[in-house]
Amino acid sequence: DLMASLGRLASDKNTIMVVTTSHSKQILERLLGHLPIYLLPENGCIYRTPEGEWKYADALGCSCATAEDNSLAEVEEGTESTAGISSPRSRAASSSADTSDHGWMNGVEEVLRYFQERTPGSYIDRTEFSLKWFFDNTQTDFGAPQTRDLMIQLWAGPLANAEAEIVVGNRYIEIRPKDSSIASNLEKILHHEILDADSTSDSKVDTCVVIGAYPFRDQ
């Protein structure tokens, strides 16, 4: 039983467990909130410590991880990538999330709903920091062209000057704050919470095991 195995690992004082997901805080807390582990919903933009305290990764400072460019052709190929929106870095790190930093989200959702109405089988998932548009229940020869058109509309509209990026996944796209990949956020959280950021040796961890399926650009 998976939950029993996770419980045994979580109870081992010599084991540090971190669970990541792009889904919402509410979903992850409902499933695993009873375990004394690190929970990183929404690609680690927010996280919970084993003691139950919720924090924002933005307050930990910037990471050295960066996004790479890609092309619209990857939508048809079903590969995963990140399409960065070029604009000055202006987000200041803070201990709490300011919804004004993500003012682009309402405009993006409006465009997504427009395409949802015109793409049978597609659906939208909104969290505190990101939006996803899924077309896994649509015909590929219709869903892929619709997704390309959707991305063009987003680039030309609500994301034109926004601190946001588009991630192309397997039959979905995600719009999220720039530089908020699970890789960059996890790096910040691990160094702040577990590793000694001022030391060259990672003395607290001698073995690391990673299990999961992540977008290529977030690995």
Q: What this model shows, in words?
A:
- The protein is α+β, with helices and mostly antiparallel strands and 219 residues long.
- The chain has 2 domains: 99 residues, no CATH class; 105 residues, 2-Layer Sandwich (Alpha-Beta Plaits).
- The chain has 6 helices and 9 strands, in the order αβαβββαβαββαββα.
- The strands form 3 sheets. It has a 5-stranded antiparallel sheet, with helices on one face. The chain has a two-stranded parallel sheet with strand order 1-2.
- β1, α2 and β2 form a beta-alpha-beta unit.
- α4 runs antiparallel to α5.
- The longest helix is centred in the C-terminal third of the chain and has 17 residues.
- The chain is elongated, with a radius of gyration of 18 Å.
- The relative contact order is 0.18.
- About 12% of the residues have low confidence.
Kindly summarize this structure in a few lines:
31% of the residues lie in helices and 16% in strands. It is of the alpha+beta class and 219 residues long. Residues 74-101 are annotated as: Disordered.
Oligomer: single chain
The helix-strand sequence is HEHEEEHEHEEHEEH
* Range of helix content: 25-40%
Mind describing the biggest β-sheet?
5 strands, antiparallel
Overall shape: it is elongated
The span between the termini is: 27 Å
Integer-rounded radius of gyration: 18 Å
CATH T-level topology of the largest domain: Alpha-Beta Plaits
Count of β-strands: 9
Mean pLDDT: 81
GO molecular function: alpha,alpha-trehalose-phosphate synthase (UDP-forming) activity; trehalose-phosphatase activity
Biased composition (Low complexity): 86-97
GO cellular component, one term: cytosol
GO biological process, one term: trehalose biosynthetic process
